[in-house]
Amino acid sequence: MRKDKGNQDRKQDKGNQIPNYVNTQKTILTMMEKTYKKRDYINKSVTIISIVCVIFAIIPLASILFEVVKNGISAISLEFLTERPGAIGSGKGGIGPAIQGTLIVVGLGSLMAIPVGVLTGVYLSEYASGNNKFAFGVRFFNDVLTGLPSIIVGIVGYIAIVLVIGSFSVIAGAFSLSLIMIPLVTRITEETLKVVPNSIREAAHALGIPKWRISLFIVLKTALSGVLTGIVLSIARIAGETAPLIMTILGTSLFFTSFTGPVDALPLRIWRLASQPYESAHAQGWGAALILILIVLGLNIGLRLLSRKNIASKH
Amino acid sequence: MKINNLNVGFNKKEVLKKINLDITAKKVTAFIGPSGCGKTTLIRCLNRMHEMTQGAYVKGDIFLDNTNIYDQKVNPITVKRRIGMVFQKPNPFPTMSIFDNVASGLKLNGVKDKALIQRIVKESLEGAALWEEVKNELNQPGISLSGGQQQRLCIARSLAMHPEVLLMDEPTSALDPIASAKIEDLIHELKKYLTIVIVTHNMQQAARVSDYTAFMYLGELIEFGKTKEIFENPKKELTERYLSGKFG
């Protein structure tokens, strides 16, 4: 029945007709065919250019890794990993305090920076509406902070904490590193949350879930793998920082004693070993560099596996 | 189009089993069946869209005018140029104006003749019964239109390429009845120019718009024939039970 009605409607309405469909089809086909060869050529060139770029990006990375492993692997032993540094120039002892110190300072710094950074990112993405001036200011200074030279961050840590408590300390180091990390985590969290489709927020709102729970348990959870990647990248960044640590934890050849006392850290130890005039110290420096790379790599892989497991267990 | 012994799956799971089907030119063929029966997968095989999904495989042949579109020598891009597709949800390019949305296929395929593009955009929008509604706002963004208009915009975008076959994957499932009726009328009109394959959950819609109907169940083609015969006189019991609403 409807079909018949449709037929009548269509007889009256001559709007939707396409004149010369077949002719136009032929015209544009010939036009496009002319470009096929060129397109094929461009297609292949772009593929080749991308591959060349990939190779250029990988060469420095691979050669650094190769060099570090080649020079560093021979230095590594149980003693090297656990002992205190020996007498200068003896080639004895290890980097135990540096490994311990890096884990403590970076861990504490991350603990300070991740909640602040993630929540600031959540605020900017979820709570600050379009032309909120405060949010604009936060975003602007956050970006400025990202570009701050790390030695200046070190000076801030020195003035704000070292001078106040009167000693180079773990806390001052962690504080400085967190200053470097917060803007990175904030920016990445904000950008990742913005990509979460609005329909998901609306679906949650329609269930009557309070806004803060939507932000944390639905939006943030959806974007979790992106946020985690950002966190891992920023941890890797602070694990390799040297300048702020010189101003804050100073470096020592002793193991950790208290949060208000100095500790050692891998980048500092590498710098120290590299500036000694002995072959044996240089070898130890390479070894320490290899350990630092392995720690960052292990962290990266570990967090990735963790987030994948998290996502998998949801299904 | 002719489908020969098509087996399709994702990873190790087989989704379509031994499909053989002839699609008549310049007619409307509908694929019906309960959710998960493989109709969408089948339609996505017809323009080699399925193989772009990770882990998907396709075995068998599909012929369009004696060319096997799954032949090694055939460029998948050419296949998609000849076989257009309209998706379930309207998906206009968000950063483009209405005009640019329709012109995008031509422009990005190297057609430079501006007058020709202008003419084709107008004809395609007319063909999709959208011209009257948008002719004064061609520079507005495509996503500013309503859902039904967006879907017709997507149809116009496909028509601009002047395809030989148009695949429509549940094109009206996101639309209201009036917008759906407009699209159905459009299908009647368009089959003058091209072959149409439509996937639909709506059996009445299949009955209204199609000339041929294929009923699928659990990855197999159960029955295929003229729509009238399938609906009035199905040969298989399964088809009859599905059409009378006993399952599915």
Question: Can you put this structure into words, describing what you see?
Answer:
The complex is a heterodimer of chains A (about 325) and B (about 250). Chain A is extended. Chain A has 13 helices and no strands. Chain A has about 325 residues and is mainly alpha-helical. Chain A folds into two domains: about 1-75; about 75-315, MetI-like (MetI-like fold), CATH 1.10.3720.10. Helix content of chain B is about 35%, strand content about 25%. In chain B, helix 4 crosses helix 6. In chain B, strands 6-7-8-3-9-10 form a six-stranded mixed beta sheet, with helices on both faces. A four-stranded antiparallel beta sheet of chain B has the order 2-1-4-5, with helices on one face. By secondary structure, chain B is of the alpha/beta class.
SS summary, helix count of chain A: 13
Spans of chain B of 5+ residues with little confidence (pLDDT < 50)? none
Indicate the mean pLDDT of chain A.
87
Query: What composes the largest sheet of chain A?
Result: none
Q: Helical proportion of chain A? A: over 70%
Q: What's the SSE pattern of chain B? A: EEEHEEHEHHHHEHEHEEHH
